[in-house]
Amino acid sequence: MPEYQVKIVDAFTTRRYAGNSCGVVTRAEGLTDTEMQAIARELNASETAFVFPSAVADFRVRFFTPLKPIPLAGHPTIATMYTLADEGRIDLSRGVARVTQELTIGTLPVEVSRDGGGNIRVVMTQAKPEFLRVIDRGAVALALGIAEADLIEDVPVQVVSTGTAQAMVPVRSIEVLKKLRPDLRRLGELEASGEFFGAHIFAPEAFDAGNRTHARHFAASAGIPEDPVTGSASGGMAAYLWKYGLVRDPKYTAEQGHIMGRPGHVDIEVDADGDEPTEVRIAGTAVTVLTGTITV
User: Fold this and answer.
1) What percent of the chain has pLDDT over 90?
2) Is residue 196 scored above 90 in pLDDT?
3) Per-residue pLDDT tens for 50-92?
4) Distance in angstroms (rounded) separating the CA atoms of residues 278 and 237
5) If we measure between CA atoms, which residue out of 267, 237, 280 comes closest to residue 122?
6) Which are the contacts of 236, defined by CB distance < 8 A and separation ≥ 6?
7) Has residue 1 got a pLDDT over 90?
8) CA torsion, ordered 65, 71, 231, 247, to nearest 10 deg
9) Domain with CATH 3.10.310.10 in the chain
10) Which is nearest to 24 in space by CA: 8, 42, 1, 36?
11) Could you give the CA distance from residue 192 to residue 166 in angstroms, rounded to a whole number?
12) For 17-27, what is each residue's pLDDT tens digit?
């Protein structure tokens, strides 16, 4: 029976057992979709990434949650590119390495370098922001176990995609984030009816005064009761915050995971044309927790 090397990598952190855990299989040639899904279910991280050769990019990458594939994922991109650099398959000897990853939504660029502390830092460019359907505020509040008055007024609850469609839910404060009591069945029904993957709930304040936002994320239909630190949704959040004038900083750091004991930090950059965000980049570091093999 074939064996594949697998690593567990914590992304958006430099400290083990913080940030968001990701399974990474850097040589996945020969694996079928069914086998990749089985491995992702077995590892039971929020996502597992599988790397293949590509005819159009430096690497072809597939992402799977425990229940289904996902077209674009942030923390697995950070974990995967960190791991490829750590293994020497991305050459950092000249400083910044610019590579491309082939995803199911197309080819996107990634930059990899070392920061001032020697940590491998990955910058991921996401797809052009798309603002999709508006979700009923009352239904979302009910599913999250909060009052509709806990949501920020005069802005919609809206599905935004920078590669993966996710519901953006702005709330008044970190105190609201702390009292969330999500009904995962209701959230799963909203995901199905609204055609989105997961709900990203965020406040324009942070535990650390030097940061700009704090968030929590739930993706019931993907088998993720709560995602510690969500890179793809942080990109959608940044686009949303810019469009609706809640945060117009072109560069800042977003927090997530503190409330569930896995603190992480996502560096965000936004390019815009007036009120319209045109490109979002997210960045972070990672650290390896475990290396082993898995039998298929």
Assistant:
1) 98
2) yes
3) 999 999 999 999 999 999 999 999 999 999 999 999 999 999 9
4) 13
5) 267
6) 129, 160, 161, 162, 164, 166, 168, 200, 280
7) no
8) -140
9) 3-126+285-295, 130-282
10) 8
11) 11
12) 999 999 999 99
Question: Which positions are catalytic?
Answer: 47
Predicted TM-score of the model (pTM): 0.96
Spatial separation of the C-alpha atoms in residues 120 and 112, rounded to whole Å: 7
List all residues 6 or more positions away from 83 whose beta carbon is below 8 Å from its beta carbon.
Answer: 7, 9, 24, 26, 286, 288
CB contact at 8 A, 54 and 102: yes
Rounded to 5°, the CA angle 127-248-282 comes to: 35
Say how far apart CA 194 and CA 158 lie, in whole Å: 10
**Which candidate, 224, 201, 227, places its Cα nearest to that of 214?**
201
The angle, 0 to 180 degrees and rounded to 10, between the axes of the packed helices 184-194 and 137-144 is 150
The two most distant CA atoms of the chain are separated, in Å, by 58
Structurally, at CATH architecture level, domain 130-282 sits in: Roll (3.10)
* CATH assignment, 3-126+285-295: 3.10.310.10
Given a contact cutoff of 8 angstroms between Cβ atoms, the answer to whether 275 and 8 are in contact is no
Distance, in Å, from the CA atom of 101 to the CA atom of 81, rounded to the nearest integer, reads: 9
Average model confidence (pLDDT) for the chain? 97
Task: Return the structure tokens found at 273.
Answer: 């044309």
**Extended strands (E) in 91-137:** 97-103, 106-114, 120-125, 130-135
Structure tokens at 33: 């979709």
Element (H, E) at 41: helix 33-43
Is residue 261 classed as helix, strand or coil in its secondary structure?
A: coil
